[in-house]
Amino acid sequence: MELDELKEIWNKQNDKPMYTVNQNALFNSIQRSKDKSLKISNISELLILFVNLFTGLFLLSMAFHKDAHDLTIYLMSSGLLLSVPIVLWFRYKRLKGRDNFERSMSGTLDKAISTAHYQVQFSRWVRFYALGMLLIVVFGIFENDKSFIYIIFISVVVILTFYGSRWEHGIYVRRKEKLVELKKKLENENTDTFDQLR
Q1: How many whole angstroms separate alpha carbon 159 and alpha carbon 128?
Q2: Number of H helices, E strands in the chain
Q3: Global pTM?
Q4: Which of 47, 72, 150, 167 has a CA 20 to 30 Å removed from the CA of 121?
Q5: 133-178: pLDDT as tens digits
Q6: Collapsing DSSP states into helix, strand and coil, what is residue 20?
Q7: Range with the poorest average pLDDT among 61-70, 84-93, 94-103, 117-126
Q8: pLDDT (tens digit, 9 = 90+) per residue, 103-136?
């Protein structure tokens, strides 16, 4: 039998087209993707906020307590503390835009894409921020004449951190691309279904 004949038989038996989209499954998949992105964004923001705030304050108090005039400690604590308002700004922007979407499958998909776009931007900022902080660490190593083994160890940590952040950033980029591709498919190939999602 030809595919068209099978499709015709299927349609007669079920009164449903063979190639219909299971809207509940699609909506649940979009909802899970959106929820996962929101959860990861929330955890990332709060983790960076609290770790950087407490570490920055700890380093600053340690520098004042020891009456040390180590430029590296001051640079590190400044970098950590300056990141706090930047992360708060990112978070404010994300939370402010969360209610700008209609309550439909199409709106949920748009929100999932928006959140994925936010994750890409935020992870890009974190990569550059981490690179700057790692450069301060490397500067501190050379300023304080550390041993060759210590320099090798820190170099390995810097390289692993950079590649780890690149890997994580790639995950967010691919998730966003998949969601955008899904939206394009629904809009272009199956306009009737996408119109029903609105």
Answers
A1: 13
A2: 6, 0
A3: 0.70
A4: 72
A5: 888 877 777 777 666 676 677 667 767 777 777 888 888 888 888 8
A6: coil
A7: 61-70
A8: 777 788 888 888 888 888 888 888 888 888 888 8
What's the mean pLDDT in 24-45? 80
Distance, in Å, from the CA atom of 9 to the CA atom of 145, rounded to the nearest integer, reads 80
Query: How many Å from the N-terminal Cα to the C-terminal Cα in the chain?
Result: 37
93-to-44, 82, 86, 107, 115 alpha-carbon distances in Å: 15, 18, 11, 18, 11
Planar angle of CA 30, 31, 34, nearest 5 degrees: 85
17: three-class secondary structure by DSSP: coil
Give dist(CA 96, CA 177) in Å, integer. Answer: 23
